[in-house]
Specification:
By secondary structure, this protein is α/β, with parallel strands linked by helices. The strands form 7 sheets. The protein has an 8-stranded parallel beta sheet. A 6-stranded antiparallel beta sheet has the order 19-20-21-26-23-24. The radius of gyration is 26 Å and the shape is globular.
């Protein structure tokens, strides 16, 4: 059987005579043999069939289809490669979208009849750019088939998955027509990434599913049900006497269950339709719209999910529901409800890591444990982030993790855990790295929270993301300090020890409008673009949204990061061994590290203030290599966001000092004399 890349190469070669011109942003791959005309605005005009033929041909010769990169390279590290990785996070429909017909809009069907939103095939064209930047791990936000029901935008949220074992059909490329399945196209993306030395991770959401999940047809008992009449007024209950956004601790449960609004809420729930009337359910089971048929026949619908925090200000999540992970009530609920009360969603029942039941939903658990192995065996993926994995029952979480490592012992796993105090617990579960709280702390420079992150993060037993934004947070370029501080923090994160550089797609093009409002965000984040901009008010997680690949400074951050990741790689052993020291200072805007190699040293020095210069003296650590204190050593400014590399002839070895402009990051290298 031909590999997916070889099949693609032959297809595009056969169609190179098609008369079609696309405008592709010049940040995408530029295959040397492709016929390209560059425009002053940053686009490449090219025949897409010839373009992709030349691109795929250049990648295919180094590809090994269907295997993870660790299996290709025969590496075994229990996924610990993630600790040394450089991750790029991508929502494919956004990251790989471009205005091919130059109409000014990203169209699902353009004037040539082709899709301009991102696809797996277009994503292949972005891979060489990512590799040049230094990326070696591509983390894909959900790529599974998701719901359009109750969606907050045209395409819907990729997190409202309705079929774990089917890919999102919107990511299928129109250029390839019916000659390829979407599975072949995703396999081609994974193989192409591996050919460039980039591992591929996917997002897995085991706790929730879209309201019209395909599982409803065969397993209605896996879901929570309410009357259709209750849908319009459905909301998280309000508990008097408990502060906003309070975790559901055991101390809070009597007050919660004693609340009149909680009692009202529980009374809305009903048994599943098959339990109510098996014969009637069997009669409608094969209807195309099974949820619609249940709503019409039983007057029942699936209950939306909501936050597990008591009195959270968020409304109900109208596009997803929780899986019923246990078939009975948790022990926490039994003193307050009758045994025959229908299963219900409440802050404790959905926190099953803390409040498990006695009857695991075994068929559901086995299904969940089989999802990631399917993608491993079918496509050769290298790792995954488990969404809210820390909120799953421990036995289920361990089962999911063990199932992946049985297929590939080197499978990498990311936990969504935000709380650094839970790092050791998540490491014990088998995770390799964690999301952490850098997105919240790093932008808060003046009050010292940013410094607190950079001081403490490298000490965690589970490395956090070195990142000031994710797909759930405000964009860094929209925070205080704008593009100026965005460059400084991005540069610093590229070299921060004990953590994992994490680039959210669009960081490098200085995007300002958030993808989602999930963390540390207000509604203003959806209105960061000019009012007359065609994508004003849109959130990429719910709507079609292209990145600004024609931004005038689009090549700046990629070039800086390429240099910095090269430096990080040069000191890979020092990063891996923990040979670093935090440089203390009373200035909350000054961040400094000293990395200690066997014979050389590296000083990473940053001033995160947007207005003030920093003049800092600092002490070097004990146990340093002799070159750090040897007056005959060579001292070079290897990198600066503001200045050219240069020899620092006036370096004071007895009391090192540095002058930094606002938002300047410097890397000083000290080498032994020749």
């Amino acid at each position: 059987m031909d590999s997916p890349l070889l099949k693609l190469e032959r297809y595009f070669e056969r169609n190179r005579d098609e008369r079609l011109i696309w405008a592709i942003p010049d940040i995408f791959s530029q295959p040397p043999e492709a016929k390209i005309t560059h425009t002053p605005t940053g686009e490449m005009l090219t025949n897409p069939y010839d373009y992709f033929y030349q691109l795929v041909r250049s990648l295919r010769k180094d590809s090994v289809p269907g295997l993870s990169l660790s299996k290709i390279q025969n590496n075994q590290s229990d996924g610990e490669w993630l600790r040394q990785s450089i991750i790029y996070s991508s929502l494919v429909r956004t990251s790989a979208a471009f205005d091919a017909d130059r109409s000014g809009y990203i169209e699902h069907t353009n004037v040539h009849g082709h899709k301009e939103t991102g696809t797996f095939i277009k994503m292949i064209a972005l891979l060489p750019h990512l590799r040049r930047m230094g990326i070696d791990a591509l983390y894909l936000l959900p790529i599974m088939k998701h719901s359009r029901r109750q969606s907050k935008g045209d395409p819907g949220s990729p997190y409202s998955v309705i079929d774990f074992f089917a890919l999102d059909p919107s990511l299928k490329e129109t250029l390839t027509g019916e000659a390829f399945t979407i599975e072949e196209e995703f396999a081609a993306l994974v193989d192409a990434a591996h050919a460039l030395g980039i591992r591929v991770l996917i997002d897995f959401i085991p706790r929730t599913n879209g309201l019209d999940s395909t599982f409803i047809r065969d397993y209605p008992e896996w879901f929570y049900w309410i009357d259709c009449d209750a849908r319009d007024d459905y909301r998280p209950p309000r508990v008097e006497g408990i502060p906003s956004t309070t975790p559901p601790t055991e101390e809070q449960l009597p007050t919660m269950y004693g609340s009149d609004d909680v009692k009202r809420h529980i009374q809305q729930f009903r048994a599943d339709p098959r339990t109510l009337d098996a014969d009637t359910f069997a009669a409608i089971k094969d209807e195309a719209d099974i949820l619609g048929a249940i709503e019409e026949t039983f007057n029942l619908t699936v209950a939306p999910a909501f936050s597990d925090q008591i009195n959270d200000q968020q409304p109900a999540w109208d596009d997803v529901t929780f899986f019923k992970l246990y078939l009975d009530h948790p022990s926490s609920a039994r003193p307050y409800v009758e045994d025959d009360t229908p299963p219900f969603i409440l802050h404790d029942t959905i926190k099953s890591n803390l409040y498990p039941g006695r009857q695991p939903n075994t068929p559901l658990w086995e299904t969940l444990k089989g999802v990631l192995p399917y993608y491993q065996r079918t496509f050769g993926i290298d790792g995954a982030r488990i969404d809210m994995g820390h909120a799953l029952p421990e036995e289920l979480l361990h089962g999911i993790i063990e199932s992946t490592r049985e297929v590939d012992p080197d499978f990498g796993l990311i936990t969504e855990e935000l709380d650094p105090s839970n790092a050791e617990e998540n490491r014990a579960h088998g995770f390799n790295i964690m999301a952490g709280n850098g997105f919240y702390l790093q932008p808060r420079v003046e009050d010292g929270q940013s410094k607190a992150f950079f001081r403490s993060a490298p000490h965690l037993s589970l490395p956090p993301f070195a990142a000031a934004e994710t797909h759930d947070t405000p964009r860094l370029a929209a925070r205080e300090g704008g593009e100026k501080r965005s460059i400084a923090l991005s540069a610093l994160n590229a070299l921060t020890p004990g953590s994992v550089p994490f680039i959210n797609a669009g960081l490098e093009t200085f995007e300002k409008q958030a993808m989602n409002l999930g963390l540390d965000a207000t509604d203003i984040e959806r209105r960061r673009l000019p009012y007359n901009h065609p994508y004003y008010g849109r959130l990429a997680l719910f709507d079609y949204f292209p990145l600004d690949y024609l931004h005038q400074r689009r090549h700046l951050l990629p070039a800086l990061l390429r240099t910095l990741f090269s430096i990080r790689n040069d000191y890979r052993d020092a990063y891996a061994s923990g040979s670093w020291h935090f440089l203390e200072s009373d200035n909350p805007a000054f961040i400094g590290y000293c990395l200690q190699g066997k014979t050389r040293g590296l000083l990473i020095l940053a001033n995160l203030s947007t207005t003030n210069d920093a003049s800092e003296e600092f002490d070097l650590p004990a146990g340093r290599p002799d070159s750090l204190m040897d007056p005959e050593s060579i001292v070079n400014r290897r990198f600066s966001t503001h200045q050219r590399p240069a020899r620092l002839a006036d370096w004071d070895f007895s009391r090192p000092a540095v002058q930094l402009a606002p938002c300047e990051v410097q890397v000083v290298e000290i080498l032994p004399k020749p």
